[in-house]
Design a protein that fits this description.
With about 230 residues, the protein is α/β, with parallel strands linked by helices. The protein has helices spanning about 5, 50-60, 80-90, 110-120, 125-135, 150-160, 180-195; strands at about 10-20, 25-35, 40-45, 65-70, 75, 95, 170, 200-205, 215-220, 225-230. The chain has a domain at about 5-100 and about 165-230: 3-Layer(aba) Sandwich (Rossmann fold), CATH 3.40.50. The strands form 2 sheets. It has a 6-stranded mixed sheet with strand order 6-7-8-3-9-10. A 4-stranded antiparallel sheet has the order 2-1-4-5. The protein binds adenosine-5'-triphosphate. Adenosine-5'-triphosphate binds near residues 48 and 53. This is ABC transporter ATP-binding protein.
Length: about 230
């Protein structure tokens, strides 16, 4: 394995995330530390309000930590500034959310190509088509999101999250809105694509079905990330 491949996809060091709530503050993440290697799938479970989304937002550089450090693919996010952080998100991090977050005015292929096009990558369209082929929905490339099922939309989101040199994929309740058959397809697709691309994957979910595909399962409770873990069940 070369040096680049041994760089962790994600390192969190003593991360604290507080949210303002009126005059007081809520500690959503309390002193969380975590390493995710490339190709590794880590699932964080926990009840509603445990702090999973807050942890994922900080890990995905969508929010700054109140304290602590975040490294994505070896890069210290605190030193990047607003533009550098946006570039890192667009180039190195893929996101999959419960709500899909696809652009409704763009076709499936255009949605997948968008992060590459924003970076001026040539032949983005062709790469997007290949990515849709890999997730098994190339025949829907010309459809708009509203013309697809939830499971199909989520596969478009996965193709978009993994296109280009992604080092880290953040998935927040990726199967929360899907039936069990679509959920299984989405799980298998994300896992297979992550293994092929060598991206580290951090999934926050209530869906216990994710435990069977995880390399590590962590529990979150009242902002505390517990490393008293199990392997996959
Ligand atoms: N923007 C915000 N402003 C104020 N408080 C927030 C904000 N976001 C989250 N919180 C609070 O932080 C805590 C953790 O919330 P978070 O959404 O991270 O949990 P979660 O485990 O993802 O929950 P769920 O599974 O319901 O999405 C909760 O007490 C929540 O009310």
């Amino acid at each position: 394995m070369d040096i680049e491949n041994t760089t962790p996809a994600l390192v969190l060091e003593s991360v604290v995330k507080e949210h303002a709530a009126g005059p007081s503050r809520v500690a959503a993440v309390r002193d969380a530390s975590l390493h995710i290697a490339r190709g590794e799938i880590v699932v964080v479970c926990g009840e509603s309000g445990a702090g999973k989304s807050s942890l994922l937002q900080v890990a995905g550089c969508l929010q700054s930590p109140t304290r602590g450090a975040v490294y994505v693919d070896g890069c210290d996010v605190a030193g990047l500034g607003v533009n550098g952080s946006a570039d890192l998100r667009r180039r190195r991090i893929g996101f999959v959310f419960q709500e899909y977050n696809l652009m409704s005015a763009l076709t499936a292929r255009e949605n997948v190509a968008l992060p590459l096009e924003l970076d001026g990558v040539r032949r983005a369209d062709r790469q997007a088509h290949a990515a849709l082929q890999e997730v098994g929905i190339a025949d829907l490339a010309g459809r708009f999101p509203e013309e697809m099922s939830g499971g199909q939309r989520q596969r478009v989101a996965i193709a978009r999250a993994l296109i280009g040199p992604r080092r880290l994929v953040i998935a927040d309740e990726p199967t929360g809105a899907l039936d069990s058959a679509s959920s299984r397809v989405v799980r298998e697709t994300l896992v297979e694509r992550a293994r092929q691309h060598g991206a580290g994957v951090l999934v926050g979910t209530h869906d216990r079905e994710w435990l069977s595909v995880a390399d590590r399962v962590l529990e979150m409770s009242d902002g505390v990330l517990s490393h008293a873990t199990r392997g996959p069940e």
